[in-house]
Amino acid sequence: MKAAPVVVLVATLAAGPAVAQEEFPPPSGGKAPLVMVLSGATGPGNYRAMAGRIAALGYDVALFDSNAIMKTPARAGRTIDPAAIGSSVREAIARARQLPHALPGKIGMVGFSLGGGLVLGYGSMWTDDVAAVAAWYPSTSEFKDTAGFASRIKVPVVMFAGTADEYHFCCMIDKARALESAAKAANAPFELTVYPGVRHGFNLRGADYDGPSTEDAFAKTAAALKRYLGR
Known about the structure:
Layout: E1 22-24, E2 34-38, H1 48-55, E3 60-64, H2 66-70, H3 82-96, E4 107-112, H4 114-121, E5 130-136, H5 146-150, E6 157-162, H6 173-185, E7 190-195, H7 211-229
Parallel strand pairs: 2-3, 2-4, 4-5, 5-6, 6-7
Antiparallel strand pairs: 1-3
């Protein structure tokens, strides 16, 4: 299988093993379908609240630090091997499956920014492991061949992007729309939701927070998980 492109958002990323940073069990305390949540480059702390909200829907959530999944620090002029990153994502999935509350079977993948690029770039092709992908303001600047990439999307994807997202020029709305157009031409299971005037990290508390967009994206993420995973 051809490796998907992955973008590196920041100049330095923390190295480390691709282990589940934190488990958020379902409210029942029993076993439930597994959902992996992959953080942005700022680390998992900013995404614990969202992981908890997804778990409250009835899933076992494994929150990962996307920096650890990347493993190798990114430096100017240094090439990241997409196949190696794909293997790291696979390793993370395997580790998440070992969590005490995780049911066997296909999983959901939800990613933000750097993590959004990972779930979009890899999870969207892995029909053996993944039932649905939700990519929030994903890093897409390294998706050079949009038509070629779109033709490999086999897993249902919901993607969310703001028109004013200019963060590191990694997640531009023009690329999001190009992916949408290419996916439509390829009859790929891809749905883009665009939020006018919204910036990067719109679910994070701060100057760029946008409540209506956050709630809409969460509702659509929940609907995709329910449709393809149940609960």
